[in-house]
Design brief:
Blueprint: H1 13-27, H2 33-48, H3 55-70, E1 74-78, H4 80-85, H5 87-97, E2 100-103, H6 110-122, E3 135-136, H7 142-145, E4 146-147, E5 157-161, H8 165-173, E6 177-181, H9 188-192, E7 195-197, H10 201-214, H11 220-229, H12 232-245
Parallel strand pairs: 1-2, 1-5, 5-6, 6-7
Antiparallel strand pairs: 3-4
Helix pairs in contact: 1-2, 3-10, 3-11, 3-12, 5-10
The structure holds ligand PTJ.
């Protein structure tokens, strides 16, 4: 079944389209096979969250937008799942907040970096970093720590949708401000983040862009107030509470 063959009135339409994109990503050599497993884990948490953006996640997205607009050199890190699921939305966010896009892979191969960079260019990206690999995230083995010196290595703010815990901790040790998008509030990466967004990246990335457009003319003091008022622990606790206390209403299976 292709994406266009999925009927829009199917009760699991959004989930089916998402699965199709990940599957196509693997077939095109963009997404790793491990990306399929990560997708399954994400789907389970999304199901428990009610497949919606919680008010706490929306506040986090606004804090992320303010953080990005106030940044000197923001970089959006893109892996094989992000590239397959939200390439256009990622390019739009980068344009809106004037961020670099860098392909940064957990399972790093030069071939997959190249394919993802091409895919992002096909979806409107002008410049894609991550192909030089002349920088590093200290404290990680070589392949997992490869970054660009003029990209993630020199960024002050990094958006890391779906990061693994070790790399999130290593980026934190470098002094980066981290915005992490992850559906699992118990995962180490959102727990390391300055701004954890517990939401599906498919919803979260365009939501940050909407908030950034809304805040485009905000003075620096207003951006600072939004960032200072955001409480990461509260955001994580609200998501966990939604999972633990939420009514487990029947959601149609595919
Ligand atoms: O392309 P690569 O080589 O960089 O590899 C990317 C993956 C995602 C395979 C790699 O980083 C990995 O193995 O990640 P983990 O450790 O499985 O963590 C993935 C996290 O992302 C889990 O906490 C999932 O709940 C979460 N997740 C999965 N899909 C989504 C998601 N969070 C937000 N939106 C999603 N669509």
């Amino acid at each position: 079944m292709t994406e266009t063959e999925v009927s829009e009135d199917h009760p699991r339409y959004a989930s089916l389209v998402t699965r199709h994109r990940i599957e196509a990503g693997v077939e095109e050599g963009i997404t790793s096979k491990q990306g399929l497993i990560a997708q399954g884990r994400g789907e389970a948490f999304d199901y428990l969250l009610g497949e919606r953006t919680l008010p706490s996640a929306d506040r986090a997205a606004r804090a992320a937008a303010a953080t990005l607009l106030a940044a000197e050199h923001p970089v959006i890190s893109v892996n094989g799942n992000v590239a397959a699921l939200a390439p256009t939305e990622t390019v739009e966010l980068a344009e809106t907040v004037d961020a670099d896009i860098e392909v940064n892979l957990f399972n790093h191969t030069a071939e997959r970096v190249g394919r993802i960079a091409d895919h992002l260019r096909e979806h409107g990206a002008d410049e894609v970093k991550g192909l030089t690999g002349d920088g590093e995230i200290p404290g990680l083995s070589h392949a997992r720590g490869v970054v660009d010196a003029d990209g993630i290595e020199s960024a002050d703010v990094v958006v890391v949708p779906l990061e693994d815990g070790d790399r999130a901790a290593a980026l934190d040790s470098m002094g980066k401000t981290e915005i992490v998008i992850d559906l699992n509030p118990g995962s180490r990466s959102p727990r390391t983040a300055d701004v954890p967004i517990i939401d599906n990246l498919i919803r979260a990335v365009p939501n940050i862009t909407d908030h950034a457009r809304d805040l485009a003319d905000a003075p620096p003091e207003e951006l600072r107030e939004i960032v200072d008022a955001f409480d990461a622990d509260e955001a994580l606790a609200a998501a966990e509470a939604a999972i633990r206390d939420g009514s487990f209403a029947a959601q149609d299976e595919t």
